[in-house]
Amino acid sequence: MKLFKKLADYITRVHELNIVLFKILGIGGISVSIIAGIYSIFEGGIIMVAVNFLAAVLAFLLLLYVEKTGKYVVGYIITEVAVFMVVFAVLYLRGGGIEGALPYFFVFSLVFTFLMFSGKLLIIMETLMSGFYIALIVFSVKYPQYVVQLTNPTDYITEKIFGLFVSSLTLGCVILFYINEYRKQKKIADEAGAAKSTFLANMSHEIRTPINSVIGFNELILAETDNEKIREYATNVDHSGRLLLNVINDVLDFTRLDEGRETLQALEYHLSEEVQEIISGFRVLAEKKNLKLYVEIDELVAITYHGDCEKLKRVLNNLISNAIKYTEEGSVTVKIFVVESDKNSDGKTVSQKLRFEITDTGIGIEEADIEKLFRSYERVDLLKNQNIQGTGLGLAISKKLVELMGGDIRVKSVYGQGSTFSFELNQQVSDTEFFVEPKASEQNAYLAPEARILVVDDNPINILLVKEFLKQTMIKFDTAEDGLKCLELVAENKYDMILMDYMMPGMDGVEALGQIREYESEIGSRTPVLVLTADVVEHADDILLSKGFDAYISKPIDSRVLKEMVFKFLPSEKVTVIGSGKREETPREVIDGYTYLLKEYDIDLQEGLRYASGSLEQYVSIVKFFDNNYERARKIIEKALEENDIESLVLNFHSLKGNARNIGAVELYELARKLEKKSRAKDIVYINNAVDVFYLEWERAETGIKKLLSLIGDSGSPEADDKETSEEAVSDLIGILAEHISLCQTNPAKKTSKLILGKITDEEDIRTVEKIMDAVGDMDFDEAESLTERLRKRYGET
């Protein structure tokens, strides 16, 4: 055993495969030569004994020499010449020639040559060895007198068996060794890869938490400070922090995809709306580079699909971002068209293969670099693109996401002229109505004055939203704030439809639905019940539909989706389609003025208008409700915190989260979402530490809302104000104007000036504002500032 252990230590002292194999073969050669020498004592005569024992001694000396000098290639060459050529030739001629055992060892020596050498030396040695053996075989056949023939049949059989067994066993051991070594190295590599992925994921997660905090508190600095230098520093911190956060998110996403932990979450989505939203997010970036950004959507593309919209958006975001990033002039074009459509026996389209193409007129990609594009952490043409930021993960992530969805990304590019990235995906069609480019200010309209709907939601703002969205349909509404009240109303009235929240205090939506269905089975009727929920989890729609709901509407409520669903499930005899109707448009400069005002209070007016069908009037109704409910909602949360009432905290943070999203208070929404999550986890320590920042953001949003309402007036409509002078409203607008002028912001200053003109009646003040607009147009900001200061004193702005 000690001998075997010493041999194993000697063989594995160096881990390079060819060296280990050389040692194994050397020891094997010594062993085989000794065995053959012993065998020759009885059968082969004194010459064969001498040759075999000489071969054993030479093999030992060679191993010793190579071990001492480290000249392994020299050892390989000596082995080839001395053993595989000279010794094998003697043994071949003395052992029966082609009828003996040595031809088996010729095969072994050729395999050894392949394993030991590389490059040009491999070709030379393999050619030399093959040529030598062919010549030796031809010589033995042509001149048999030089070959010691095996005349005894027993010797012949023994020689054949011996050669076959020893050469096969040796080759088998070599192959087995290589396989085991490969498995060992693969295991080490896999473990290293897994450790790297785990480390990257943990590191990214740990970094992301404090980075989110840094960005959050930095935003509070931006919101609170009036010092321009501090705002400049904070803006740079925000930009750098978000870049770092994007890098971390890329690493996390790639790690999750690389480990196969990412799964598809199929939900219903409106493709054209999602694409337009993505494009609108890139327009500013494109305009900064003077690029044209085009979108072309095939008229055969359906309105609604069922698939993983979030992953599709991630891919499109990456590809469009790259196209803009690497394009200095020209355009970026996004095309979506139908490649194939599958229809059922009724001729209804059930699925489509969609092709997405993103084409740019940018720098292009060299053909040799295209295969590198999708490698992780690698970017091409680094010298030319050294000033372009990125992790080199965007395309790798996109490729993996597309493959996860059943597609494949392809690239066509001409270096210096531009590139086209494309992929195809199969998507289920949820709505057979196809995409038509919408006309401005128009929407499908219908009336249903005879219809009656029950809206069940513990959040009054959601009820208000539903009523506002459907106001023009003339539908009659009843409302309930919980499941018990819902059951009472269902027992007393006949409804054409029920819109029910999923998560409510006491009896939730699922339990209420179950009791409604039991009651209806007794009276022999059935009312469509549509579930409203903000919990968008994997297969949420399938789960809720399996509970018995007729349809699924996610929050925040999309007005178009709501109208389509209500239209779909209302009895057709109670609905009158009236074609299309035009909505009253608020002037663009008015919207811009309010946008600038609310931005100071972390409220995104455009986001709020999105959930109010683009109607400022509907939006004002929602923010009024938010304003009126502020004191009551705050007292409820404060009381729940005092009493550690976790259930109440979950419900109220959940409710406020939705309300904040509806008015566009994006920061308040994020804080409420985090606090809801921590409430569910019963992390009361975190909540108590974070609630002060939450209250601060809530107060900021409330202040912004009050400012907006004071500008608009009690009517809720800017048109209804009829230029009625409001000292406080005008004072606020003058303050905004002064800030735009101090920052030399021409267009915002002009738009705010127009807004002021709509609020004042005094002729002298009107002329002053007109002079301000002329000064701004002439870039004379000193004069504009002087005139604005006169207005500030006139309206008491200090």
Topology:
Blueprint: H1 2-11, H2 17-43, H3 45-69, H4 72-94, H5 102-116, H6 119-142, H7 153-224, H8 228-258, E1 267-270, H9 271-288, E2 292-297, E3 302-307, H10 309-325, E4 331-343, E5 349-360, H11 367-370, H12 394-404, E6 410-414, E7 418-434, E8 442-447, E9 452-456, H13 460-469, E10 476-480, H14 483-492, E11 497-501, H15 509-523, E12 529-533, H16 540-546, E13 551-554, H17 559-569, E14 576-582, H18 588-599, H19 605-610, H20 616-642, H21 646-663, H22 666-680, H23 684-712, H24 727-742, H25 746-757, H26 763-777, H27 781-794
Parallel strand pairs: 2-4, 9-10, 9-11, 11-12, 12-13
Antiparallel strand pairs: 1-3, 3-7, 4-5, 5-7, 6-7, 8-14
Helix pairs in contact: 2-3, 2-7, 3-4, 4-5, 4-6, 5-6, 5-7, 7-8, 8-12, 9-10, 10-12, 13-20, 14-15, 18-25, 20-21, 20-23, 21-22, 22-23, 23-24, 24-25, 24-27, 25-26, 26-27
Describe the structure.
By secondary structure, the chain is an alpha/beta fold. The protein is built from 27 helices and 14 strands. The strands form 3 sheets. Strands 1, 2, 3, 4, 5, 6 and 7 form a 7-stranded mixed beta sheet that branches. The longest helix is centred in the first third of the chain and has 72 residues, at 153-224.
Shape descriptor: elongated
- What is the mean predicted local confidence, pLDDT? 77
Structural class: alpha/beta
Helix content: 55-70%
Number of strand elements = 14
Number of helices: 27
Uncertain residue ranges: 379-391, 435-444, 579-584, 714-725
* Distance, first to last CA: 97 Å
Strand content: 5-15%
Reported for the largest beta sheet, the result is:
7 strands, mixed
Radius of gyration: 40 Å
